[in-house]
From TrEMBL:
PANTHER family associated with the record: ALKANESULFONATE MONOOXYGENASE-RELATED, C2H2 FINGER DOMAIN TRANSCRIPTION FACTOR (EUROFUNG)-RELATED
Listed Basic residues bias regions: 442-454
SUPFAM superfamilies found in the cross-reference section: Bacterial luciferase-like (SSF51679)
GO MF annotation: an example: oxidoreductase activity, acting on paired donors, with incorporation or reduction of molecular oxygen
Keywords, alphabetical: Flavoprotein, FMN, Monooxygenase, Oxidoreductase
Domain Luciferase-like: 27-388
The protein's name in its UniProt record: FMN-dependent monooxygenase
């Protein structure tokens, strides 16, 4: 690690009974079966803020996992991210019971339009007082495309070309349609908005067209904090240009360190400081007061992970039908429209063959990222070592048994990290962007490509709006 920094954490969850480890909803102490109730999410948010976590990162998937065996039967039977609910609708309730916690919301731009999505995230940014982030995804499930009336999804690299066009239109709306002082709220003159300071966005792109004024007035951040999770070659190029925070995986420290290094180097090619991007690695953390108790807890949790459901999940992620593999059969690299970086990590980037059976259970071998089990001291040692050796800024904590696992992290690990001086003891004031980048202000940094669409006295872009 080239510069000291505090570790940052997001609680990683999904509005579904199962998330990254299939079957844990069946654990008798797990509350995820109530994923579709506000009480579940309100309590979850309160716990995350009590632990001073930077945010709740909500995953989403548009479609069903039907690669395994060619049907969605296994996904339905074992609740493999099915059913799932719209994560954007939960934010207002969680924001109401918290003051500082950020919210990273996954939204698939392939089935959205910039004009519509821009309003949604501006609204959320207003309602959270600037605590909203958008995890930009392009979608990889053909089942989702078919559900939307299309024969199949776009090819992998084409999805990122469309994302570039989408973001250009969105930046124009968020940054250029309303001047900073357009809204007057002047009761005396009965003028709410000065129409001279509103600007119609004209965007004629290869994938998206916009002709209109952004429907929402400028929010605290204007553009939400931008998350991204693409670490394929094309995904890295996109993320290095646009993302302010990136979620990435790697089951060994060398694999993760290489991904971090490639992203930071790519950021420089786009004129950005490599540390203008916060990098979060996924992490499975099982902690208890003693190492022995943590190992007992691992065995307890592992009994409830469903192997068929786990392989159905991984088949959807990788585009490989693991129902046709033997448990002892090593995974081979296959190019697909799914998550290419995951296949690369299991094959060409791995220092040993990864067998299908390795991926089916709750274990270090089956993890796609850091897998940490032990006492608070053990966990702190491991997380600090991963950060030091890979240069990540923090971790997205995978959901295990909820809320038990998050409570354990907050009650046991957070104090240990604080005692070592690597974790905050209080929240900073300001928006989510200001908390992640102290001293920067609530808006996109000047080197970010979206900043050039700002409408100001010295930076007018006639091609952004008229």
């Amino acid at each position: 690690m080239t510069r000291p920094r505090e570790l940052r954490f997001n609680a990683f969850n999904m509005t579904a009974p199962s998330h990254n480890w299939a079957g844990l909803w069946s654990h008798p102490r797990d509350a995820s079966i109530d994923y579709n109730t506000l009480d579940y999410w309100v309590d979850y948010a309160k716990t995350a803020e009590r632990g001073l976590l930077d945010g709740i990162f909500l995953a989403d998937v548009f479609g069903v996992y039907d690669v395994f065996g060619g049907t969605a039967d296994a996904a339905a039977r074992h609740a493999v991210q099915l059913p799932n609910a719209d994560p954007t609708l939960l934010v207002s309730a969680m924001a109401l019971v918290t003051r500082h916690l950020g919210f990273g919301i996954t939204s698939n731009l392939t089935f959205e339009h910039p004009y519509q999505l821009a309003r949604t995230f501006s609204t959320l940014d207003h309602l959270t007082k600037g605590r909203i982030g958008w995890n930009i995804v392009t979608g990889y499930l053909d089942s989702g495309a078919r559900g939307m009336g299309l024969p199949a999804g776009r090819a992998h690299d084409d999805r990122y070309d469309a994302a570039e066009d989408f973001l250009t239109a969105a930046y124009k709306l968020w940054e250029g349609s309303w001047e900073d002082d357009a809204v007057r709220r002047d009761r005396g003159s009965r003028i709410f908005t000065d129409p001279a300071k509103l600007h119609r966005v004209l965007h004629e792109g290869p994938y998206f067209r916009v002709d209109g004024i952004h429907l929402a007035e400028p929010s605290p951040q204007r553009t939400p904090l931008l998350y991204q999770a693409g670490t394929s070659k094309r995904g890295r190029a996109f993320a290095a240009q646009h993302a302010e925070a990136i979620f990435l995986n790697g089951q060994t420290r060398p694999i993760l360190a290489r991904a971090v290094r490639e992203i930071r180097e790519a950021a420089k090619t786009h004129g950005r400081d490599p540390y203008d991007i916060r990098l979060f690695a996924g992490a499975t953390v099982i902690v208890a007061p003693t190492r022995s108790e943590a190992n007992d807890l691992l065995e307890d949790y592992a009994r409830h992970v469903d192997q068929t459901g786990q392989l159905a999940l991984l088949s959807g992620w990788t585009g490989i039908d693991f129902s046709t593999y033997r448990p002892d059969q090593p995974i081979e690299y296959v190019e697909s429209n799914a998550i290419q970086s995951m296949v690369e990590n299991f094959t060409v980037r791995s220092d040993r063959p990864v067998n299908v059976g390795d991926l089916a259970g709750l274990s270090r071998a089956g993890a796609r990222s850091p897998f940490v089990v032990g006492s608070p001291q053990d966990v702190a040692d491991e997380l600090i070592a991963w950060a030091d050796e890979t240069d990540v800024d923090g971790f997205n904590l995978f959901r295990l048994v909820a809320p038990e696992s998050l409570n354990a992290f907050v009650d046991l690990v957070v104090p240990e990290l604080q005692s070592r001086g690597v974790y905050k003891t209080a929240y900073r004031d300001g928006t989510l962007r200001e908390k992640l980048f102290p001293g920067r202000g609530p808006r996109l940094h000047a080197t970010h490509p979206g900043a050039r669409y700002r409408r100001s006295a010295d930076n007018l872009r006639s091609d952004a709006a008229e």
